[in-house]
Specification:
heterodimer; A: mainly beta; seven-stranded mixed sheet; 11 strands; 51% strand; globular; B: mainly beta; five-stranded antiparallel sheet; 0% helix
Chain lengths: 113, 112
Amino acid sequence: DSGVTQTPKHLITATGQRVTLRCSPRSGDLSVYWYQQSLDQGLQFLIQYYNGEERAKGNILERFSAQQFPDLHSELNLSSLELGDSALYFCASSPLDGPGEQYFGPGTRLTVT
Amino acid sequence: TQLLEQSPQFLSIQEGENLTVYCNSSSVFSSLQWYRQEPGEGPVLLVTVVTGGEVKKLKRLTFQFGDARKDSSLHITAAQPGDTGLYLCVGAAQGGSEKLVFGKGTKLTVNP
């Protein structure tokens, strides 16, 4: 158990809908990272927050957004969902601001039908 | 564009065999992490290497960081079915988190 929690575990929704994925980092970690992992791709870095502020952006679509709240939990919002958005979404936390070791949550499996 | 090439992409071996997987790049990394991921679960951190030439051992797993900090290897001795999983290397280049570089992984299957 990494100490990172993600909800929900599974999510099935229709194209065009909007969903919110939630992540609680390990106690004491200030950084939260979001990743997308689909079958034919490796882990794709989406975005990082540190202590409530956006720190780095990766391959995040404009239809996706995220935020980190004062209690350090984070939410990833996915809107106008497409079939290709079906994937595993992981959040990871780290005590560091910069790149380094991360602790991954169990993931949310999103299926868009 | 920074790339981390992992090889082999797939590896299927019998219990008790030894194996080595590789992670190579033309870029220099300030640190490199190895993770193992089981199907449907999040990657689990195995080790971080920081110094060129560094060797770290974790039970039957031996990790090495290249002298130039551009490559790394993971050697498993006497593999067991519990070693089955996707092994990912992740390089941290100088700069912010957008400088994290992910390999696509080596999918290892250890057959009993």
